[in-house]
Design brief:
76 residues; mainly alpha; elongated
Length: 76
């Protein structure tokens, strides 16, 4: 494990401390659990937006992204 420092509101720290006391664990453990939960909820971005094999242009959207014009057209 690696040590780090965080800044948090006193109210938040009080609430986390109460959770730690109720669960019989350390404040650090409650904070680690919260960080782990947040990291797991983060949606992973796809590596490519391409459709089909990457070696088959024009389907390789990731490679062709610079060629495309994403400017919105007026609906009027």
């Amino acid at each position: 494990m690696k040590r780090t420092t965080i800044m948090a509101d006193e109210d938040l720290l009080d609430r986390l401390q109460r959770i730690a006391q109720q669960e019989g664990v350390s404040l650090a453990e409650v904070i680690r659990e919260g960080l782990e939960l947040r990291a797991r909820q983060r949606r992973r971005l796809p590596r490519s937006f391409g459709v089909g094999a990457a070696s088959e242009p024009p389907y390789d959207m990731a490679r062709r992204a610079g060629e495309l014009d994403f400017t919105a057209e007026s609906w009027r």
